[in-house]
């Protein structure tokens, strides 16, 4: 497991409150932005969605998450703000 720090809206988000863990509890997560700091110190921005996977009886048997790396977009937005 890679040890990362996740931040959303200026608050550190525990592993239990990240999209995949929330989906494992039955939540639907749509298009939430997170800043992740990797152990190397590199920061990446991800746009994430997650869904629970249920068996025919409706019990949660897993979850799936999809994340889009939006780091370049976020850095471009920051540069435009500085130029204004």
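^ structure tokens above, recovered residues below v
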């Amino acid at each position: 497991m890679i040890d990362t720090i996740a931040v959303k809206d200026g608050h550190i988000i525990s592993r239990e409150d990240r999209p995949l863990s929330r989906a494992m509890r039955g939540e639907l997560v749509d298009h939430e932005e997170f800043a992740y700091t990797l152990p190397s110190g590199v920061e990446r921005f991800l746009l994430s969605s997650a869904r629970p996977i249920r068996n025919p009886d409706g019990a949660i048997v897993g979850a799936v998450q999809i994340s889009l790396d939006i780091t370049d977009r976020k850095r471009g937005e920051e540069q435009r703000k500085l130029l204004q």
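The chain has two helices and five strands.
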